[in-house]
């Protein structure tokens, strides 16, 4: 059996110190519509931390190897693969898992040709966060030019992508929240947000209502969960959509919370949760096509940017996980796999 190197976890799950490079990992074989990719770079996501700790439900058909976004070169193709790809093509894409490895087998329906204008690292920073932002903003949030939108955790990778998409595709106003002045300044000065609010210093929902003359915002993209729930109901506009993608503040309303549930009826609100990794290949393929149509041309001309906080050699995967766990990044963390 052919083997490869891959990031593994001692005992199957555990702390950062359990991460190591296993040089006896079985190399995957492409089947059906898959391609075998020699990985050049892969992106880190918060879900990787949860998966390492055994707290993230991996799809039943997915490999246990972490990593859902990558860039690399096609080494082999299965018989049912898309006709637009061939051996030797430089690509990047989204997978259900397996990116933390020298090789990954992934559906060609989730591959995108690498533009010459972008580096391996930049391409590895795009798929998960930009497709998640597109899903939340368009498919669930119902975004159209002229609508206003707010992105919580404004310096997180998905919100960095989302603010650029919102500004670049005709939002009437783009708001963000963060937990430091530096992150708020980043949202406004680097990403083009209309305003950003430091949630440790002000009641952000009241600030949003003041900025919108009491109307509120049409779409709110939320990862915070319970701590933002009351504010989301307050800050949402009539017929507003609140899209919840994570619950970073836990799963229970905090003590003393007093959400106005009457807002659901009074404002005709829609509150909807979603995830990306659990979606089927057809759904993810639609999102890939939307990314290619709405965002890729703007990456090529420099309008959009894959903001990267730091690039690591993959042998330093423990340090990379420590940095993302510290929650102080303003952009993606990327690992590269040097050529042997």
From TrEMBL:
PANTHER family: QUINONE OXIDOREDUCTASE PIG3, QUINONE OXIDOREDUCTASE PIG3-RELATED. Signal peptide: none annotated. This is Enoyl reductase (ER) domain-containing protein. Residues 14-335 form the Enoyl reductase (ER) domain. Keywords: NADP, Oxidoreductase. InterPro entries: ADH-like_C (IPR013149), ADH-like_N (IPR013154), ER (IPR020843), GroES-like_sf (IPR011032), NAD(P)-bd_dom_sf (IPR036291), Quinone_OxRdtase_PIG3 (IPR014189). The keyword NADP applies. It holds the Pfam family ADH_zinc_N. Gene3D superfamilies: Medium-chain alcohol dehydrogenases, catalytic domain, NAD(P)-binding Rossmann-like Domain. GO terms for molecular function: NADPH binding; oxidoreductase activity, acting on NAD(P)H.
């Amino acid at each position: 059996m052919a083997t490869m190197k891959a990031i593994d976890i001692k005992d199957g799950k555990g702390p950062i110190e359990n991460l190591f490079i296993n040089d006896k990992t079985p190399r995957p074989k492409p089947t059906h519509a898959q391609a075998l990719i020699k990985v050049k770079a892969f992106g880190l996501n918060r879900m990787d931390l949860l998966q390492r700790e055994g707290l993230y439900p991996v799809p039943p058909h997915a490999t246990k190897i972490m990593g859902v976004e990558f860039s690399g070169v096609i080494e082999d193709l299965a018989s049912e693969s898309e006709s637009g790809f061939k051996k030797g093509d430089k690509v990047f894409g989204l997978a259900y898992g397996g990116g933390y490895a020298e090789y990954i087998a992934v559906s060609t329906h989730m591959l995108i040709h690498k533009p010459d204008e972008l580096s391996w690292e930049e391409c590895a920073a795009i798929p998960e966060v930009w497709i998640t932002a597109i899903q939340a903003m368009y498919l669930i949030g119902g975004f159209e030019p002229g609508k206003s939108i707010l992105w919580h955790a404004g310096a997180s990778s998905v919100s960095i992508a989302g603010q650029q998409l919102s500004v670049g595709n005709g939002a009437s106003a783009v708001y963000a929240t963060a937990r430091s002045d530096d992150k708020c300044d980043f949202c406004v000065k680097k990403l083009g947000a209309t305003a950003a609010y430091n949630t440790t210093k002000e009641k952000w929902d009241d600030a949003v209502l003041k900025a919108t003359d009491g109307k509120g915002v049409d779409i709110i993209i939320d990862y915070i969960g319970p701590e933002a729930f009351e504010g989301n109901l307050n800050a949402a506009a009539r017929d507003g959509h609140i899209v919840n993608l994570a619950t970073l503040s836990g799963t229970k309303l905090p003590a003393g919370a007093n959400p106005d549930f009457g807002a659901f009826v009074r404002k005709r609100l829609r509150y909807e949760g979603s995830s990306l990794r659990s979606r089927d290949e057809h759904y993810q393929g639609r999102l890939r096509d939307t990314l290619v149509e709405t965002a890729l041309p703007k990456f090529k001309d420099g309008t959009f940017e894959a903001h990267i906080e730091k690039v690591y050699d993959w042998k330093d995967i423990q340090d990379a996980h420590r940095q993302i766990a510290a929650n102080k990044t303003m952009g993606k963390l990327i690992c590269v796999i040097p050529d042997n």
